[in-house]
Amino acid sequence: MIASQNILKKFHTGELEYKKQSDVCRLLGISSRAERDEIGRILKTLEEEGELVRDERGRYVTPQRLGLVLCTLQGNERGFAFGLREDGDDLFFPPRALHGALHGDTVYARIVGGEHGDEGAVYSIVKRGMPRLTGVYYRDRKGGYVEADERRFCEPVHIIGGTVRAFPGEKVVVRIVSYPDGRAPEGQIEEVLGKCGDLKTEEEAIIRTQNLSEEFPKKVLAEAARAAEEEVSSDGRRDFRGDLVITIDGEDSRDFDDAVSVEKEGDGYRLSVHIADVSHYVKRGGALDREAYSRGTSVYFPDRVLPMLPESLSNGACSLNEGEDRYTLSCIMHVDGRGSVTDSQIAEGVIRSSNRMTYTQVSAILDGDETVRAKYPHLLLMCEDMRALARILMKKRQARGSVELDVREAKITYNDGAIEVCEYQRTMAHHIIEEFMILANETVAEFIAAYELPFVYRVHEKPSEEKAEGFKKYLQELGIRAKFHPENVRPGEYGKILEGLEGSELHRVVNRVMLRSMSKARYSAENCGHFGLASRCYCHFTSPIRRYPDLVVHRIVKLAIAGQAGEAERFSSFVQEASQRCSASERRADEAERAVDELYKVWYMRLHLGEEYDGIVSGVTAFGVFAELSNTVEGLIRIENLPRDDYVFVEERYLLKGSRHSYKIGDKIRIKVAACDIGTRKCEFLPADI
């Protein structure tokens, strides 16, 4: 048996570098045909896995020897692409440098320079990113083809063979079967989803585009049902059923991961955060666990949820339902009057939620609504204590430099075909739960970090030097003093900028540009801290019903509190893989949720064509400006529809400047709804005063 790892090792040591297959066989002393064929298979596999590439003369070599970098392409409908890297700044690929690579592909690339030293050229394609896609079927004189819904996948797919037939204008799922050099990809239609432009067809297409799972395999459902039948017992667990414990969620929530309890203790508080003990029911390595890992996260749409776990668990045995005994992993924190945790315990517990409360109800209690207060007299004192503790925690986070970004969210409701869109209103009740969950996440992360065990951290790295430099220049253009050093931004420096603009018209503008300068949070086996929260150690612990990383965290924590830290070491390699895979699952879910939200917004706005609204300029480009309405709907005003002028796009100032008119982020603007394109999920506006 010839070991592929031994061969790869010889490439890394240089023994086999720049050798063709025949040379590799000769140097290894291999002469039999069977062994030569085996070497060929190994080399091909190593190439497919990205461990080896071939140079211009067909010789095998490690990518590192050629100075290649690995990245995933993020295409643009105008033909260029960006290469997203795990360990470096992103690269820019002009169309000529893609060499047949498409959106979503994993590639090895050379850094070839460019104006900013960030231009890349594809050297080899390691893995195709979109073997299946959805799109609209058309016919021309050359035959059938599909234009992908994913606009960043710029090439049409030529349809060859297959047994499924479609009519022009229908939305289809197509599987790509080949990538001919210099020609369009070739594929076969696997399924017809329906008529293009239909709401449910378009939503289904988004689900398929992101490769999200809708149905659970029978084996998974059966395993979940068996697990859910178990009777709850307090044996070996801390019994919290005598405590006043409540859940606080939205009106439309169906699964409840977390419950809280607060008691005043002298000048401080005892805060208990009880989290559903999903790991008790979902055993590592089983069919249920493998399916949850594959999904990575639940995905939420206005009309449905694609859950990570079957309903018998997500809405049943794991959900902390009112009046029912439930297993938890509980974090009990003693917090002093300054918001510091002076002592904490993590324990497997049993709770019985006293009340299923909503944000609206808790807000009403805190606002003095006598009707609601009369309904929940036993909760009045605890609600007041929760608010007082939350304010202490908010003040402490602000003092350490937490960046409080104002991110507007849409509330989209769907009832029997009727759609409503408005801005989601956050109340003190939302802040209470947010602060308590952040504190529990930090406490658990610090507990495991002290043990130095393998773990899945939630990290948010500081802005790159380039983005921070651009943001600093933008602030200086606005006349705002920016003292931070772009090469080493600290969260407090960003936080103070927003704090200093509180109440100013510039606050929303700077908030939006600051958000664009920041990195995206992700999961990591390394503790890199959380920039946005100004937290040195953070994880996701509080939502194991809907997030797989939280489930991994629970498993490791339970081993630690059981005195089995040595057993937790077996997670060493898995946390690396899980961090990358769960980050990818999260990105996929975020893209799907964002796309479906945009679909519903456009569907809603098509009933308001010709109507006028007040908005603000939310984005500026060389081809026009984007305006955002108070209900969070965004639309484009094309440059040719703006008042006539000689416009110049000043990118670093987010400004479209003419001799008589100019537009910048944050400007107020009155618009008229001109068009709603369901297929592209985009609205077009016109200035109302033209």
Topology, element by element:
Layout: H1 4-13, H2 21-27, H3 33-48, E1 53-54, E2 60-61, E3 69-75, E4 81-84, E5 91-93, E6 106-113, E7 119-127, E8 132-140, E9 143-148, E10 157-159, E11 170-178, E12 186-195, H4 199-209, H5 218-228, E13 238-239, E14 246-249, E15 258-265, E16 268-276, H6 287-295, E17 299-300, E18 305-306, H7 311-317, E19 325-335, E20 341-352, E21 355-358, H8 359-366, H9 370-375, H10 380-400, E22 410-415, E23 418-423, H11 428-451, E24 457-459, H12 465-477, H13 491-500, H14 506-517, E25 522-524, H15 548-561, H16 565-568, H17 572-605, E26 612-621, E27 624-629, E28 634-638, E29 648-650, E30 655-657, E31 662-664, E32 668-677, E33 682-687
Parallel strand pairs: 10-12, 13-20, 14-21, 28-33
Antiparallel strand pairs: 1-2, 3-4, 3-6, 4-5, 6-7, 8-9, 8-11, 9-10, 11-12, 15-16, 16-19, 17-18, 19-20, 22-23, 24-25, 26-27, 26-32, 27-28, 29-30, 30-31, 32-33
Rg measurement, Å? 28 Å
Major sheet size, sense and barrel closure: 5 strands, antiparallel
Mean pLDDT: 94
Oligomerization = single chain
Strand order, sheet with most strands: 5-4-3-6-7
Distance between the termini: 77 Å
Tell me the overall shape: globular
